[in-house]
Amino acid sequence: MRLRFAPSPTGQLHVGNARTALFNWLMARGQGGTFILRIEDTDFERSTRESERSMIEDLQWLGLDWTEGIDVGGEHGPYRQSERLHIYRAHAVELMSAGHAYHCFCSAEMLEADRSAALAAGRPPKYVGRCRQLPRDEARRRIASGEAAVIRFRVPDNRDVSFDDVVRGTVTFNTDVIGDPVIVRSDGVPAYNYAVVIDDALMEITHVIRGEDHISNTPRQLLIFEAFGWRPPTFAHVSLVMGPDHSPLSKRHGATSVAEFRARGYLPEALTNYLALLGWSPGEKEELVPIDQLAPRFRLQDVGHSAGVFDIDKLAWVNRHYLKAADPGRLARLSVPYLQQRGWVSEPMSSDLDYLERVIPAAAGSVDRLEQVPARLAFLFDYSAARALAAPAVRAEALASRAVMTALAEELSTSGRLVDREAFRAAASRVRDRTGQKGKALFHPIRLALTGETEGLELDLAVPAIEGGAMLHASGIKPIMGAAERAREFASALNDEPTA
RNA sequence: GCCGGUAUCGUCUAGGGGUUAGGACGGGUGGUUCUCAGCCAUCAAACCGGGGUUCGAAUCCCCGUACCGGUACCA
After folding, report:
1. How far is the CA of A353 from the C1' of B69 (A)?
2. Count of C-beta atoms within a 10 Å radius of residue A253
3. Half-sphere exposure of A26 (CA within 13 A, CB side)
4. Other CB atoms closer than 10 Å to residue A254's CB: what's the count?
5. A246 CA to B68 C1', in Å?
6. pTM
7. Which of A5, A59, A292, A384 is the most buried (most CB within 10 A)?
8. What separation, in Å, do the N-terminal and C-terminal C-alpha atoms of chain A show?
9. Tens digit of pLDDT for each residue in A343-364?
10. DSSP-assigned beta bridge partners for residue A372
11. CA nearest to A463, candidates A494, A406, A422, A430
12. Contact positions of strand B to protein Cβ (< 7 A)
């Protein structure tokens, strides 16, 4: 079994295409097949190497590895269509001499006129066949005289072409609605419907899994396979991915490319897990399953027939799951860039990294995506008693719990660093004993004073993180104010307040 | 217009001639935790419409409707 993913390098890898790539990968991985990456860059206007590079990078990031194709080579190369022009040319000649293709000299204006006429008459706007019967020597003469020509494939009249689509069942088209397609443009570059056939045949692709938008191209391609006497691959057309409003997923729906999801701090295993479940289900009650475990169970027959809406909330849920399961070192490494953006971290040294590896996973476990980690850690790097007290709700609560604030400041001025959960709890108990406050009336004011925020990580985690940060002799991390100093600053800022 | 495809809670889906139509995300409520998140419990929420076949249709058939795709010298 040989499968391929064949993107056009025009822009970034879209999640819809990533899903198609994933289904191919799942199939190859699950059935012991070969997954091939081919680049379809015959649209020279829009294709760029930059885009090709980013797509390769995105595919690698997702973990959808290929064992043949661009980047890794193989026996059926080259794998970039722009490097296979000579192959297409040779096969076009073959097609022409067998009478399956012919030169067409119709101008764009003529074609447009034909088209509107057909539409007006309620007929499918297909090529009228003006150049179909042009004698070969006449065509040759006109070409020699420098006239521009395309090569069209001759589609037989009134024939039903059908194929068994693995996900949709039997699909039939009548050739009467199909015009003779251009297979080689006037600039000598092959058109998509032709190049795919040559490539899929020569690369010995056995299963073509692609987007539903290609379903009506399939009969043309089948006819070309037939003209060459080649056996066509098995086709499977998977439905498209939609936005929440049920229109095709686009930028106005937010992130649509794999690169954007990566930049926002989604984990690749979360994206692939989510995408695998969009349009396919491994059965009941299973949602969180890594793709390598999904692969052996993946069956094209079970892929849904209808378009799926991309649900960002469900992706977030899946991502949270993988964030909680991820290795601390990895989370730290992935989160540092976001902290650098805030200017809180520059080039962390190893002692800094140890600290970040303790602190970041705590934050990452309560966030949808890694880009939200800084907000969760702002209490460390961005503490300001004055700013916290500027918020009316904070000021009101702080004023109401002045006793706790004062006791906390006094307690921390004599206690040692609260380096762990136990030390913090002991200190909190002593504040409780001094003030008689407990529960929410005790801990919430402490949170306010020590973090400057009304919500955030559990204090058991947050306070040791503050203290640990304050003890750092770090050069790569913004200095972190210790708990005692925070308590003192908060209490004194509070005492400057007029009593309510 | 023409051709093709699709249709179960808001979303992703399971199921499928007789079921209390199941699960997950999201939402509501209650509990737990200093808070948010989480966790636990709990509630609301669906078979596109109309015909037909049948004792019985959400399931099979037909017709509509809606949506998606194609209708290029783009892929």
Report:
1. 51
2. 16
3. 28
4. 14
5. 9
6. 0.93
7. A5
8. 77
9. 999 887 777 888 999 999 999 9
10. none
11. A422
12. 1-8, 10-15, 22-26, 33-38, 67-75
